[in-house]
Amino acid sequence: MHTPLADRIRPQTLDDVVGQQQLIASGKPLRRILESGQIPNMIFYGPSGVGKTTIARIIADSTSMTLHKLNGTSASTADIRDVVAEIGTFSSINGILLYLDEIQYLNKKQQQLLLEYMENGTITLIASTTENPYFAVYNALISRSTVFEFKPVPPAELECAVERGFHCMEKQVDEKIHLENGVCNWIANGCSGDVRKAMNTVELIVLSGTHTADGIVVSKKLAKELTQRSNMRYDRDNDQHYDLLSALQKSIRGSDESAALHYTARLLAANDLLSVCRRLLVIASEDVGLAYPQAIVITKACVDSALQLGLPEARIPIAEAIVLLATAPKSNSAYLAMDAAIADVEKYGAPDFPRHLQNMHFDGAERDVKGQFYRYPHDFPNHYVRQQYLPDALKDKVYYTFGENRQEQSAAAYREKILREDKT
Predict the structure, then answer these.
(1) Who's near 317: CB < 8 A, 6+ residues apart?
(2) What is the C-alpha to C-alpha distance for residues 40 and 189, in angstroms, rounded to an integer?
(3) Rounded to the nearest 5 degrees, what angle is found at the Cα of 308, between the Cα atoms of 307 and 310?
(4) Which residues of 183-211 are buried (b: 16+ CB within 10 A; e: fewer)?
(5) Is residue 168 classed exposed, middle or buried when 0-12, 13-18 and 19+ CB atoms within 10 A define those classes?
(6) If DSSP codes are grouped into helix, strand and coil, which group holds residue 99?
(7) Does the chain have fewer CB atoms within 10 Å around its N or its C terminus?
């Protein structure tokens, strides 16, 4: 059976691991844990191919505990019960270390099976997940574990792994491999920090290389062809989806149209036009808001055009909306006002309306003072008259504050004028 290159050159010590130096360099948390010999329950969180499984195996191999390995994609409740059944037997005299890959695929009941044994230390769990554990893993299990976040491997470090991969392939094929300048660098920059993907690319390139009398020749053109889309790390159901949308909105909010265009290009490259359109509509109201009220109208027109055109032409109106929103003045005053109003609804519930706002055409016998007493603003100068609109419990509340932009300051000036001229 063929063993992938990524598994054949998997590091056996922390010193051989590329990336994750924030965790495994001398004096860093995981390094200290391994050196202490006392292994706590841990959850490794991060994208695929960045060393979670490798480091977990290195830690597991350093202990005297009985090691069990399960994968959440295939493990059943019976598999977990089999691990638990070993507790108290001779084989588990030094404890059980359970390495559980892709823990997010286990249901809540399966995860709960481990809690009691993690609590008393008879089972030590090292779990890995590509999804945010605070959403994908049962809270009680997280509270008994330490979460370590793994990052994509930087290109400079990944390039070293790529070179090692080519050396390993030379031994496998028993031929000299001649690399054109820049091949390793191209692969390292094109695999988005994913070591496994880089190793798979190396193996595929060698198998596709040109055979000559002097060995296998690997051109930069071939490397580009085989890694042309491997840098698109994206899953609509994973953190990368939400990270991209968050980065897009924060870039527009921060008035950086270049960054916003970059993150949008990544979303469009993954054919996720709908998510872009929905987020732009949110941004137009949440971040530009009343500083430029026409932004929502123009954005809606751009979104409608994009959805009607489809990709690739949709990128044109989308770009127009992004640049408009990023360069427009910003105000979240209406957004904050609505949130404040919602907070009071949650706090106070539904207090009675002021009587003059009710849709009433008669007075009950119980009322001493008859009449609704509503004052029609259009009958007064400037179409304004002072009267209470909020319920009594909230009558002095102010939710909206005029923003410091020309549009809202103009509205504020008008408000001051009509209040000043009100004679009632």
Answers:
(1) 301, 302, 303, 305, 306, 309
(2) 35
(3) 65
(4) bbbbbbbbbbbbbbbbbbbbbebbeebee
(5) middle
(6) strand
(7) N
Tokens for 312, please give them: 């690739």
User: What SS3 state is found at 210?
Assistant: strand
Among 103, 128, 121, 25, residue whose Cα is nearest residue 65 = 121
In order, the DSSP letters of 37-73 are S-PPPEEEE--TTSSHHHHHHHHHHTSSSEEEEEETT
Residue bearing tokens 């103009």 = 410
DSSP reduced 3-state for 200: helix
For residue 111, what pLDDT band results from cuts at 50, 70 and 90?
confident
Beta strands 123-129 and 146-149: pairing type? Answer: unpaired
**Long-range pairs, 27-33, Cβ under 8 A, ≥24:** 29/148, 30/55, 30/59, 30/148, 33/59
Q: What is the DSSP letter of 286?
A: I
Cβ-in-10-Å burial (0-12, 13-18, 19+) of 318 comes to buried
H/E stretch holding 124: strand 123-129
DSSP 234-265: --TTSHHHHHHHHHHHHHHHTT-HHHHHHHHH
Beta carbons of 56 and 99 less than 8 angstroms apart: yes
State pLDDT tens for residues 162-199: 888 888 888 888 888 888 888 888 888 888 788 888 88
Orientation of helix 195-208 relative to helix 220-227, angle to 10°: 130
Residue with tokens 């003059």: 356
Please check the confidence at residue 368 and state whether its pLDDT lies above 60: no
- The pair of structure tokens assigned to 38 is 């006392």
Strand partners for 210: 217
Beta bridge partners of 129: 45
Could you give the percent of the chain with pLDDT greater than 70?
Answer: 93
Q: Can you spell out the DSSP letters for 202-241? A: HHHHHHHSEEETTEEEE-HHHHHHHHTTTT----TTSHHH
Q: Which helix (H) or strand (E) holds 146?
A: strand 146-149
Between the CA of residue 421 and those of 192, 380, 389, 416, what are the distances in Å? 64, 11, 20, 9
Handedness of CA 296, 297, 298, 303 (dihedral sign): positive
The answer to whether residues 151 and 22 touch, using CB atoms and an 8 Å cutoff, is yes
R_g of the chain, CA atoms, integer Å: 31
Q: Which two tokens stand for residue 70?
A: 């399960």
- Give the Cβ contact number of residue 285 at 10 Å: 17
